[in-house]
Amino acid sequence: MEGGGDVEIDCSDRSLMRKWDRDRWYSNIDAVLDARRRHANGEMTQTELNKRIKAAGYCPTPNGLLADRELRAVIDCFTAYKYDWMHVAVQDGFVSNAMWLVVQAGLDDIEQGKPLVDFIKSFEFPFSRRSTDRYALPRVFSKKMMRKHSNAGTIIANASVQLSLYRMLEFWAIEKSSPEMDPHNEVFFASCYVVNLFREVKYRRMETRTAAELLLPAIERWQSLHKALYGSQYFKPKFNWIWSVAEQLAASPRMFDMFCVERQHRRVKRQAELVCSTTDFERSCLMRALDVLTQRFKVILDSEQTIARGGDVKPTAVWATNAHLELIPAAEIDLSGAEEKRSAVRAEKTKMSVFASAGKR
């Protein structure tokens, strides 16, 4: 908190929180790297190392990006590092927990999820999603999964399933409304509103700056309601990251999440499978992956230059390249004015040819 000291991890008063500065952040990273060195030299046990990593909140490796001091001089990792709202919300996150708490409050028998299964099956799904949502969502509340949810104190499912599920549970909670159920619903709806704001930005229906202004009071409201009803027993360290996500959101006009990042895993994996030596494994994989991405950037830049000169570029080729790269938004590749540019160039060439023919006559 301001002026020194600490606050509890479930603190919902943003005025009591302070941001890390760059030097302290790098010092935290270096402390973990030093602990890894001491562990490798036999000066620290694995248990002590694990505690140091958990306390730091980061797990850098000696050959990773955060340990590269030359990279620090080129890229400001402090501002580039982002927490992922998807992991904070629906990967054993605060919404996963909120869904389980409202389900727990609304069911007569916590081990029997059949009422929820029947409720989900009553929905009519689009044909394209019948093979996934229609069958995957009810399985979340099978007898086996209900035991897992109960033991974990949270809904256990992948992010895609949970993003579909929480909206359906909102309708279920409304139907179950009662004086006893309403306090649980209020907490659940507050957590859903936070996710709704992130989704508005994700689908480009709201600007990041606007969302950031709405997110901070929304997070504070959810945390206050949650503590008032359940206390602090369900809070996890990652729940606190949602404040950092909201604070960082306005710094960029776009919001990235784990879907666009984890889709890169397959591309890196292709390069990693070709590396046999593990002596400098991370650096070798990174250099191979960057080489591939550099070539893809070159293709896109060449295409843009061709368009600027009035040449013909097949849009499908550019989109295919962009889809493979997955780093440059399609909106940033200016194909909208390509036809106008080509028409202007053709008109200029026609004019020149007419003047040339007149000169010959």
List the helices and strands and how they pair.
Layout: H1 22-40, H2 46-56, H3 69-74, H4 77-80, H5 85-90, H6 94-106, H7 114-121, H8 133-139, H9 143-152, H10 159-175, H11 182-202, H12 208-230, H13 241-249, H14 258-262, H15 265-272, H16 281-308, H17 315-325, H18 338-360
Order of helices and strands: HHHHHHHHHHHHHHHHHH
Mean pLDDT: 80
Helix-strand makeup class: mainly alpha
Residues in helix, %: 55-70%
- Flag low-confidence runs: 315-336
Largest sheet: none
What does this structure look like?
With 361 residues, the protein is an all-alpha fold. The protein contains 18 helices and no strands. Helix 12 packs antiparallel against helix 13 (241-249). The longest helix has 28 residues, at 281-308. The radius of gyration is 26 Å and the shape is globular. Residues 315-336 have low confidence and may be disordered.
Quick description:
This protein has 361 residues and is mainly α.
Relevant terms:
single chain; about 350 residues; mainly alpha; 18 helices
